[in-house]
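User: Sequence in, structure out. Go.
Assistant: Echoing your sequence, followed by the structure tokens.
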Amino acid sequence: MSFSSLRIRVRACFGFRSLVIGILLWPVAAFAEPSGDIVTVNVDQAKLLRLPTRVATIVVGNPLIADVALQSGGVIVVTGKGYGATNFIAMDRSGEILLDRVIQVEGPTDQLVTVYRGVERESYSCLPMCQRRITLGDGEHYFKSTMDQAGSLSGQAGGAAAKPN
């Protein structure tokens, strides 16, 4: 075999391998979401986004992860409800899809301290001093007692505001 034919075979083999790798990687490149299309929000927090004014309907993939509320003027409020990822689709009155975005809901970014008592978990926000903070996954008793306290405080504040002087 001559040197020229060997060189042609090596080039052909390299070209074929490159073609196979390109075909295998094409779905990854074609379907990957650009990082600008991901809306990141913390659980129990909200974020405002501006959409085209033609938006008439919002559809949320999993409302247990995020809630999306359409406001006037093309503004939406995205609220993190649970950890994970979902999507929302914005459509106009004719059903045309104007926008399809991924919503990534992440954990708290403050100074969160987690205390484990056996299998029960308690969460505290420690900025500047530690206070109870209800977080998804906390123990049932801790979660309920903290919610009861917050509800009682809210009720008292609402009742005091309603009383005339």
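User: And one key feature?
Assistant: Residues 28-35 have pLDDT under 50 and may be disordered.
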